[in-house]
Amino acid sequence: MRLTLITILLLLISESVYSDDVRQKRIVLSYDDAPMSGTRYYSGEARTAQLISSLREAKAGPVLFFVNTKGIEKLDKGMARLKSYAKSGHLLANHTHSHLYAHKASVSDFLEDIDKAEAHLSTLPNNRPWVRFPYLDEGRFPEKIAQLARGLASRGLSNGYVTVDTYDWYLNDLFQKALRDGKPINHDILRDLYVRLSLEAAEHYDKISLSTLGHSPIHVLLLHENDLAALYAKDLVLALRRAGWQIMHPDEAYKNPLPAPTTLHTSQGRLAALAIDKGMAPKKTAHWSIIQTAIDNEIETLGAFKK
């Protein structure tokens, strides 16, 4: 009887520990397309300074910047900005030289483009051996996907995948258009929408991970190094923490990478692709944060660009 009680207690304890691990909400912030050019709102240098400051104030720890290197020497002191990110403790990784579509470029041309970017990045501190495919396009034919994967591996590089996709870039495009059109900007509304876009996407993909993988991995959130990132990075970090998320060091996310999917549908990131492998329809994996008409409706309903 005593043995049975002890066994039951041990099972309950192990189940509790396992449940805590399963439900642990951990996320990495990653920013694509760095360093982006200046806009009507921020010069490139001012945006970098503001983003660094916002992340520091939020005590976010290191975040990850995926870098395009084409024209970097002429782009708002692009190399100096990347060095500023690295000096502030943030990490840099490869987003190709020219931001090519993998399915449009030949394998050799795409790998050459990665090599060009790596030549620049290898001169910078805090460089990591990860490649983020532009547009999350890893190729549209199995053999090409396999050839690109082998090409990365032969270079000591690996896939810098995402698990939480957002169209923050589209929201930023709407912001830039409003500036060009002289519309008033309600920053309270825009800030809340930017934060909610990412937070609700994170919760959505985490639920998919629990149903698909049976546990919650260290998520990687896809953002871009744009004006909205600089304006609202602190607000986003604080909101994630309030919702129970822990901001993780990027190294932790790729230490034990998720397996590569077999589906060709990779445009929503790795987690959605794995869910599709298990039979979930792409429409089910998609969240409103990656649907342009849904974002348009939010902007219109909330009145982000109205008097």
TrEMBL record:
**Belongs to which family?**
Belongs to the polysaccharide deacetylase family.
- InterPro entries attached to this UniProt entry: Glyco_hydro/deAcase_b/a-brl, NODB_dom, Polysacc_deacetylase_ArnD
Give any Pfam family that matches.
Polysacc_deac_1
GO cellular component terms listed in the entry, alphabetical order: membrane
Please state what the protein is called: Chitooligosaccharide deacetylase
**GO annotation, biological process:** carbohydrate metabolic process
Role, per record: Is involved in generating a small heat-stable compound (Nod), an acylated oligomer of N-acetylglucosamine, that stimulates mitosis in various plant protoplasts.
Q: Please give the PROSITE patterns that the UniProt record associates with this protein.
A: NODB
Q: NodB homology domain: from which residue to which, for each copy?
A: 25-248
User: What UniProt keywords apply to this chain's record, in alphabetical order?
Assistant: Hydrolase, Metal-binding
Annotated signal sequence range: none
Q: Which GO terms describe its molecular function?
A: hydrolase activity, acting on carbon-nitrogen (but not peptide) bonds; metal ion binding
Q: Which PANTHER family does the record cross-reference, listed alphabetically?
A: CHITIN DEACETYLASE 1-RELATED, GLYCOSYL TRANSFERASE-RELATED
Has UniProt tagged this entry with the keyword Lyase?
no
